[in-house]
Design a protein that fits this description.
Number of helices: 11
Radius of gyration: 20 Å
CATH class of the largest domain: Alpha Beta
CATH superfamily of the largest domain: Vaccinia Virus protein VP39
Strand order of the largest sheet: 6-2-1-7-8-10-9
Number of strands: 10
Order of helices and strands: HHHHHEHEHEHEEHEEHEHEE
Distance between the termini: 41 Å
Largest sheet: 7 strands, mixed
Strand content: 15-25%
CATH architecture of the largest domain: 3-Layer(aba) Sandwich
Number of domains: 2
């Protein structure tokens, strides 16, 4: 199976200039099986033949690999710690503005969750300290959806009722996020694997107080995980917070430069 994967990685690169070698092999295998079922191929041998004959299929496969599903307040432990421990610390330490980067933000659910939490804290504590959220993704279509701020019911299933009622207007099973929250974010295109920059150009400079990058690392081979982690580490202030996905904590623990904030949460501090 590994040899077959390597063979088609090379074919896709030569024939379509599509480099899927960056992805973890087990993730690639799952994508191949998924496309095999979608194309009604009896087995992977038939699918690989199909992949070589149907001009559009490599791009459908690439779409399968670009997993962008997200939800509001996806990890309850993470957002509970943010609300109760991290936000008070950030607002107490800062005199002007808190800088936040939501990396690989997809269509914006996690970035907007941060904006809701920060806005709610500001209102409750009547503080004049501001916050700025830069949200980036490599997909222009995802960014366009994020800017619209329109979401379906299933992505809000973890959202506290008070937040849902305060910050969204509902039409059927569609929810529109309040404009005041949407205006707190700056969405821009950025590829985390870009080797020419250490942080998004639209951020002017790094020095972030908090970076969120969830459920991204485990899709990539180790070499590319290191590129992303190095970039995040360079972009954070000393003592800044890094939030990842629950299934990725072992990858961050193995990287020198971060220490756990509160085990077993997926929150780390730049050391």
């Amino acid at each position: 199976m590994i040899k077959e994967i390597e063979k088609h990685i090379q074919l896709l690169k030569e024939q379509y200039s599509l480099d899927i070698s960056i992805y973890d092999h087990s993730y690639l295998e799952k994508a191949f099986y998924s496309r095999m079922n979608s194309t009604f191929c009896e087995n992977l041998d038939f699918y690989f033949q199909y992949l070589g004959k149907i001009p559009d299929e490599p791009f459908h496969l690439l779409g399968q690999l670009s997993n962008s599903y997200s939800e509001f307040f996806r990890n309850s432990l993470t957002f509970s710690l943010l609300e109760q421990a991290i936000l008070p610390r950030l607002f107490n330490l800062k005199e002007t503005e808190i800088r936040i980067w939501s990396a690989a933000c997809a269509s914006g659910q996690e970035a907007y969750s941060l904006a809701i939490l920060f806005n709610d804290y500001k209102e409750k504590n009547k503080t004049s300290i501001g916050f700025r959220i830069l949200a980036t993704d490599s997909s222009e279509s995802e960014l366009e959806m994020a800017r619209k701020g329109i979401f379906d019911l299933k992505t809000l299933k973890n959202t506290p009722i008070g937040f849902a009622e305060k910050y969204f207007s509902r039409t059927g099973d569609t929810f529109l996020l309040n404009q005041a929250i949407r205006e707190q974010l700056d969405f821009s295109h950025y590829d985390l694997l870009c080797k020419e920059s250490s942080s998004p150009p639209s951020g002017i400079y790094g020095d972030y107080d908090l970076i969120m990058c969830c459920n991204v690392l485990f899709y990539y081979e180790s070499e590319y995980q290191q590129i992303i982690l190095n970039k995040i580490h360079r972009s954070l202030k000393p003592g800044g917070f890094f939030i990842t996905g629950e299934a990725e904590t072992h990858l961050v623990n193995a990287f020198r430069g971060f220490k756990p904030f509160a085990t077993p949460s997926a929150i780390f501090v730049k050391s």
